[in-house]
Amino acid sequence: FFFIFPFFDYSGTLLLRQEAERGEAVPKVGVAMLLSRLHQSLLANKGYTAGHRLSALPPSTSAPPSNRAQLSNRRSQIGKMAAPKMPIRGAKQVAQAIDYSKYDLEDTLPKDYDKDTPTWGANRRAGVILHPTCLPGPNGIGEIGGQARAFVDWIASAGLRCWQILPMVPPDPMFYSPYSGTDSNAGNPLTIDLEDLISLGLLDKADAPPPVPVANVDFEKVAEVKLPLIAKAAARLLSDPKFKGLRDDMTAWRKSHAWIEDSAMFGVARTLPGLCDQAWWDWPEGMRFRQEKAMAEFRKEHHQAIEEFVATQFLFDKQWMALRAYANDLGIKIIGDMPIYVGGHSVDVWAHQELFELGPDGHPTTVSGVPPDAFSETGQLWGSPLYKWEQHRKEGYSWWASRLGRAFELYDETRIDHFRGFAGYYCVDAKAETAMVGDWKKGPGLELFDALKAKLGAVPILAEDLGVITADVVQLREAIGAPGMVVLQFAWGGGPGNVHLPHMHYDNSYCYPGTHDNETCTGWFKDSATPEDKAAIKEYLGVDGSDIAWDLIRAAMQSVSNTAIFMMQDIMKLDNSARINTPGVAKGNWSWRIGDEGVWERLAPEAKELRALAHKAFRHPSEKKGTPPKKFNQRPESTRAPKDGTTGTSEEPSAKK
């Protein structure tokens, strides 16, 4: 054992050592991981590169497989994909205090040379996915005030170090999808905490609506009750003399957030009679093309509404930044989410028409999607207008720098949907009814991230690299040092080279039992997993499947992936009645809520168990003593972008949602 010890990956070795010290049996998955690491290390010593099979997860589709046999056959097709080469793991997480490049052969090294030891596993952590709208609260929807802080306390008690959320943008008013927002920079006003507004004096106690029993979110009813109250608070902020100090803060915030002016214009216009039922490209020509006279008249006529929009966004920002600070003070990072594309009927396109593929009348000419594959005979037509990348290049990618800069103001890290679109994207005629006919076009690639690096510095991005991924996508993700994703629900088809299997995981990645687009683990195992899936899981993990959600949580904890993330529904062992999104289905999504305010106390045993698992898997902060503290947006040197400049990213779009 001690002869082969140096070849092993640290995390697996630690697990084996801890179990051996206690005289306990070694988990089967731990042995599998250890043997895999040994095999790869031996290959490396012989000068070989271990193959890394990517991507067993198909894109979401509106036409799911009609039967399990068909699904199994499709998985087999994906399992036959070519395996792009990946670097061998090893001392990736070594943090050097000494710059050895300064020393030549036989030079005397510093006196503290023997103290410059590796900090293995310094970036290992675990976290949870729960969108703020799912939180408890009396107003029909989760809010970003007291109950959000209570959830952060629970996260800390569970030994978790990150909270992943869905996009916080104003959702579309038809299906309320956070992935079909009307403004990529603004926040969702429905999540503003009313109790916080009352405590500030912007609302009276009598303004508080009657408490609503906790149930799934009825977005229309919530908007009907909350938006007038938030408008009242905004109006009081603008006019009441006792809020002069807060108004001064708002004025300073407004000056430092130039995007708010266009956002306010569009946000007011899209709610007006005569405009609210039309896309902006069907508005009267003056507003459609932002002609100076028409814009000036609009500002004058709707001055109060525009000012209230700005005040509302300021209040959202104030509450959100307080929540982020609260989480950060407890050592918890917030991971945001960003679709690569923006909606056509959005301020993003209306205010920057020159950056999108639009016709002379403003209508989109080409739109996003993916071609037909084993999972969708007609492909997926998302309909978002494509970027005019040459124009983005001419302006130095400033729009992207602004968009991501705003994201990093709100979040510590950001996941980007459909990362593959930065390498190569699918182009469909806007008049097409399906995505069966289209062309692949080359994306901006490394050039974009060079520009972002120069403008923003660190760009802590998580690359959603699920689906059928080509070699250029992998090369781009590796070049910018962005972590990818592995999902355990997708591990059981395609053979032993499936990247989602634990022995195929790589450290610069996020491991999920399932994501917000999946069934819950309990629901999946009960309703969708094939007999072959179930047999493979039981044999591989050494379990009987009676506790499948936590079986997969434990496997994710033991993964070599630096970050393990769990859906809250899986922590609670819930079935598909708690599913938050079904891709390809427009209605009935995004509404699930976790329960009443007593849920955190009821989930104390789960928090204790997660903390113990995090301790065993070296993901708990208390285990990091003696290692240099690291911010997660500062990747270790070996996983950072190349010195020639670059950054980090993600994959898969939002329109699919």
Summarize the topology:
Layout: H1 10-21, H2 28-45, H3 68-79, E1 125-129, H4 146-157, E2 162-164, H5 194-200, H6 219-239, H7 244-256, H8 259-269, H9 285-288, H10 292-301, H11 303-329, E3 333-339, H12 347-350, E4 366-370, E5 380-385, H13 389-394, H14 398-410, E6 413-417, E7 424-429, E8 439-442, H15 446-456, E9 461-463, H16 471-479, E10 484-487, E11 509-512, H17 521-527, H18 531-541, H19 548-558, E12 563-567, H20 568-571, H21 599-602, H22 604-616
Parallel strand pairs: 1-2, 1-12, 2-3, 3-6, 6-9, 10-11, 11-12
Antiparallel strand pairs: 4-5, 4-7, 7-8
Helix pairs in contact: 1-2, 6-11, 8-11, 14-15
Which key features would you list for this structure?
globular, 8-stranded parallel β-sheet, alpha/beta, 12 strands, 9% strand, 657 residues, 4-stranded antiparallel β-sheet, single chain, disordered C terminus, disordered N terminus
Written description of the protein model:
The chain is 37% helix and 9% strand. By secondary structure, the chain is α/β, with parallel strands linked by helices. The chain has an 8-stranded parallel beta sheet. Strands 5-4-7-8 form a 4-stranded antiparallel beta sheet, with no helix packed on it. α4 links the parallel β1 (125-129) and β2 (162-164).
- Decide which structural class fits the backbone: alpha/beta
In round numbers, the mean pLDDT is: 84
Radius of gyration: 25 Å
Q: What percent of the residues sit in helical stretches (DSSP H or I)?
A: 25-40%
Biggest β-sheet description: 8 strands, parallel
Unreliable residue stretches: 1-93, 625-657
The N- to C-terminal Cα distance equals 48 Å
Shape verdict: globular
Strand line-up in the sheet with most strands: 9-6-3-2-1-12-11-10
According to DSSP, the number of beta strands is: 12
Number of helices: 22
- In terms of DSSP E residues, the strand content is 5-15%
Quaternary: single chain
